[in-house]
Amino acid sequence: MELNIVCIPGDGIGPEIVAEARKVLEKVALVFGHKMNFKDILMGGASIDVHGVPLTKEAVEDAKASDAVLMGSIGGDTTTSPWYKLPPDKRPEAGLLGIRKALNLFANLRPAVLYDELANACPLKKEISGDGFDIMIMRELTGGLYFGERRTTEENGVRTAVDTLVYNENEIRRIAVKGFDIAKKRRGKVTSVDKANVLDSSRLWRKVVEEVAQNYPDVVLEHMLVDNCAMQLVKNPAQFDVILTENMFGDILSDEASMVTGSIGMLASASLNDSKFGLYEPSHGSAPDIAGKDIANPIATVLSAAMMLRYSFDLDREADAVEEAVKQVLKEGYRTGDIMSEGCTQVGCREMGDLLASKIG
Ligand code: IPM
Ligand code: MG
Fold first, then answer.
1. In Å, how far are 152, 176, 300, 350 from 264, measured between CA atoms?
2. Ligand 2 (ion): which residues have CB within 5 A?
3. What is the pLDDT of residues 219-254, one digit of tens each?
4. How many angstroms separate the CA atoms of 332 and 326, rounded?
5. Phi and psi at residue 101, in whole multiples of 5°?
6. Is 114 inside a domain boundary?
7. 251 in ligand 1 pocket by Cβ < 6 Å?
8. What DSSP line would sit under 279-345, residue for residue?
9. Ligand 2 centroid from CA 252, angstroms
10. Does the CB atom of residue 256 touch ligand 1 within 6 A?
């Protein structure tokens, strides 16, 4: 297969981790006989520094013309970086929201998995973490509070800010369909998370999800209020298979779920549109404090590349090989600093990339 992949190295540790994921992909191409063409585009702070804006039209066009996008991370230290002196729509995050919208990436998949080898990293008590868990958070990514109208006004010296939470039934239906499709391939359970005891948008969400569920008799649907879900994630994470939720709730719950695994440096994510196209990025941020030190963990980005092979290119064997390489390297006791534990061998970002690539083929 010939694959055109756009890379967004981005800011902070982004360039380092993308370089390692690319190294692994190049090895996959070599071993499995594919041709991969890579093109870098700028986004976030890196784009602000060159173009004055966090995302250019040209960058969007390049991404649109590609088969899939692999991203590192964007953004800097919000208290010290000059990027955060700019108006909100010119800051690094606006680039990320802009590309999500421009590419119609409404379905965000965020797996939270407790790896056997890293079970000790889980901050939960052993009797709660039990035999581990494997949750897929499906977050709606192009609607809700993130994209509703917002404004700040001042009247008679009183400042008022408004953000609006809007969903129409089509936006809810398409993410629900993706959620049920994915649950069907997993353990057949969807927990739809909302705040239907307060919000109209949540009551509509619940109705539409129930309509979609009619077409999936083999998938069990349950509803859960978001505050309860936040508790259940630390009380009994193994009860969850697919968590289906709106944009803001998904932002918060996915961070919670990743902390519960204890190894956010391991967690991948995919943002998909209604075809096979997707943007793949680690769940963690740009970690500016450790940028350029060759100590970042590239595994989440490498696993995001595996998701790209699986979801955008249907290359399951290749994706399996990458995931297997990660397991193998962990089994052999290699760890980056963030997941280091006694008796293991600590390696840097580049060495971890080399090790992973060496396990392919
Ligand atoms: C995420 C991030 C983004 C979001 C920020 C950087 C805008 O937190 O991908 O979860 O809130 O969606
Ligand atoms: Mg977030």
1. 34, 26, 8, 19
2. 251
3. 999 999 999 999 999 999 999 999 999 999 999 999
4. 10
5. -70, -45
6. no
7. yes
8. EEEESS---GGGTTTT-S--HHHHHHHHHHHHHTT--HHHHHHHHHHHHHHHHTTEE-GGG--TTSE
9. 6
10. no
Whether residues 3 and 43 share a domain: the answer is: yes
What is the Å distance from ligand 2's center to 72 Cα? 14
| Amino acid letter, 280 | Y
Domain that holds residue 250: 123-260
Indicate if ligand 1 lies below 6 Å from the C-beta of 93.
Answer: yes
Are 92 and 209 contained in the same domain? no
Nearest CA to ligand 1 atom 2: 251
Angle of CA points 112, 132, 179, to nearest 5°:
40
For residues 282 and 302, what is the distance between their CA atoms, to the nearest angstrom? 8
For residue 351, give the amino acid letter: E
In this prediction, residue 268 carries a pLDDT of: 96
Rg of the chain, C-alpha, whole Å: 20
The answer to whether residue 112 sits within a structural domain is no
Question: What residues in the chain have per-residue pLDDT under 50?
Answer: none
Query: Distance from the CA of 339 to the center of ligand 2, in angstroms?
Result: 21
| In a shared domain, residues 195 and 231 | yes
Q: pLDDT above 70 covers what percent of the chain?
A: 100
Of the listed ligands, the closest to the CA of 110 is 1
- Give the Å distance between the CA of 111 and the centre of ligand 2: 14
Catalytic residue numbers read 146, 195, 227, 251, 255
